[in-house]
Amino acid sequence: MRDTVFTRMSGWIPNVIREGGELKLMLAAGADANHEPRTFTFSIGEAHLAVIREDLARHLLLWSAVLPLCDDAGTRGRLDENAAVALLDPILLAAPADVDALFQRIRWDRSRLIAHGADTGLLERGRVCAAMRAATETSNGRRAQEYRADRRRAERGAVLGPLDAAILRYTGQYVHGATVPRRLPDAVDPALLPEVVRVIATAEQACAGMRISRDPRRGNRATDRRDWGRMETTVEAAVRRAHPELVDDAVRTVSFLMCSEAADRSRSTPMEDDEEAAGHRVDFGGGARKTVLSFTDDKGAEKKWLRESSRTAAAEFWEFVGDRSAGDNEVFTIEDEEMGEGIQLHFYADSIARITTLREGEGGSDPEYRVEYSLVDGIGGYRNLVSAFVRGGCAALEQHGPWMSDVAEFERARRRRDAR
Predict the structure, then answer these.
(1) Residue 160 in contact with residue 168, Cβ under 8 Å?
(2) H or E segment at 193?
(3) What angle do the packed helices 313-324 and 378-392 form, to 10 degrees?
(4) Distance CA 129, CA 61 (A)
(5) Is residue 283 predicted with pLDDT exceeding 60?
(6) Whole-angstrom Cα distance, residue 346 to residue 357?
(7) Which pLDDT belongs to residue 354?
(8) How far apart are CA 400 and CA 236, in angstroms?
(9) How far is Cα 380 from Cα 224, in angstroms, rounded to an integer?
(10) Which residues pair with 409 in a beta bridge?
(11) Exposed e or buried b for every residue in 401-417, given b needs 16+ CB within 10 A?
C-alpha cells in the first residue's frame, strides 16, 4: 500500500510517500531499456519530511544531489540507497555554510537548480544556499539551456553583449547554433529590438539581388553550396563593417538567417522558375533545334522529353537528376537520337563528355563516335552546359571548352585542378 504524503506543484520534484508504514522520497529519473521513466525510492525520517514541506530550496538541493546517483543506476541497476540516505542530514538539516561545503565535494545537477530559478552567479561562487533563495516550484528549462550555451561560449572565449544576445534570440539560435534560424521579434527585449532590426537591415541590403539556386546533384531540395558561401561571405563582411562591436556568434547567425531564407525561397520555386532566375531559361519556340531528348542515369532509368511538353528540357532534366541522383548514381546522360549526339555528366568528377556520332553502324559494324571531355565548375557550370546543349547541340558547347579527346590529357588536367 502506497500513500502520497507530500507533493509539490511540479510533478518532477520528488514526492514523499508512505509505503508499508515507512516514509520514503520517490523520484522519477532516467529511463529503462524500453525508454520508460525509472522511479526510485529511499527512506527518510519525519525531521526530513518537515524540512521538505517548509523549505523548497533544501528540497531542490536534495533533488539535485540525488539525481547523479540515479544516473549511476542506469537502465537496470539499483539506486545506491545508502548513498542517498547519507545525503539527507547534510543537506536538509545542516547549517548553510556546511551545505555549501558539501556541494563542493559531491556531484550534483546544476541545470536542475538553474531551471528552478537559482542565481547562477552565486552558484558559480559555491554559495548554493544563497543561490536558491529565489527558487520557484515551476521549472524553466529554457533558462538552464541558455546557461549551458553561455558556458560553452565562455569555454571558447566568446562573451555576448546585450545586442549579441538579442540577435541570437531573434534568430532562435541562442541555445543551439545549429537550429534553423527564424525571425522571432517577440523573443527580444523591446528596448533592443530596433537595434536588432537595424543589423538585419544591413544584412538584407548586402545580399539584395543574390540568390541560392538548387543543386539537383544532391536531391530536389538541395541548394548550391557555392551560392551559399558567396552570400554568407557578403553578409558577414557587410555586418562586420557596419557593426564592428558584434561578436562572431552574432554575425554568423545573421548570415545564417539570410542564407537559410534564400535557400527556402529556392526550394519552394518550381524548377522552371529556378532555371530562369539562375539565368538558364531556354526558349524552345520558333527555331528551337531539339524536338526529342532522352535522359538516362547510371542505373538504367530513362525519361523522354518532347518539344510539345509544357516544361523546358533543362527543367525536366534537372528534376530527373534530383529524383535519381545518389552516392552510387552520379552519371547522367542527355541524348538526341535524331541528331546522333549527347552529353554525359560525371558528377563524381566535376566533368562532362560530349559525344557525337561520326558514322552509323552498318552491316553489323559498330558505329563510330567522337568523345571529348571538359572540366566543369560546379552546378553553375553544369547548368550552362545543359542549357547550351538543349538549345544548340554539341556545336553550341564549343565556346564552353576547352574540350579534350585524349583521355590521358584530360586526366592530367583533372588532377591539376584537384590539386589546386
Answers:
(1) yes
(2) helix 193-206
(3) 130
(4) 8
(5) no
(6) 20
(7) 96
(8) 33
(9) 8
(10) none
(11) eebbeeeeebeebbeee
Q: Are 10 and 137 in contact (CB under 8 A)?
A: yes
Amino acid at 150: D
Q: What is the predicted pLDDT for the residue at 37?
A: 85
Q: Which three cell numbers stand for residue 147?
A: 546557461
Nine-digit cell string for 232? 554568407
Angle between helix axes 193-206 and 162-170 (nearest 10 degrees) is 70
Determine the Cα–Cα distance for residues 352 and 41; give it in Å rounded to an integer: 69
Could you read off the pLDDT of 47-104 as tens digits, one per residue? 999 999 999 999 999 999 999 999 999 988 999 999 999 999 999 999 999 999 999 9
The span from the CA of 141 to the CA of 163, in Å, is: 23
Cell numbers for 169, please give them: 534570440
Determine the Cα–Cα distance for residues 48 and 89; give it in Å rounded to an integer: 8
User: Rg of the chain's alpha carbons, rounded to an integer?
Assistant: 33
Sheet arrangement for strand 37-43: 2-6, 15-19, 22-31, 37-43
Residue (of 324, 327, 356) closest to 343 by Cα position: 356
Q: Which helix (H) or strand (E) holds 98?
A: helix 96-103
Contact 340, 360 (CB under 8 A): yes
Note whether 350 and 377 are within 8 A (CB): yes
Cα-based distances in Å from 27 to 30, 169, 207: 10, 34, 53
In whole angstroms, what is the distance from residue 65 CA to residue 88 CA? 10
Q: What is the pLDDT of residues 125-176, one digit of tens each?
A: 999 999 999 999 999 999 999 999 989 998 888 889 999 999 999 999 999 8
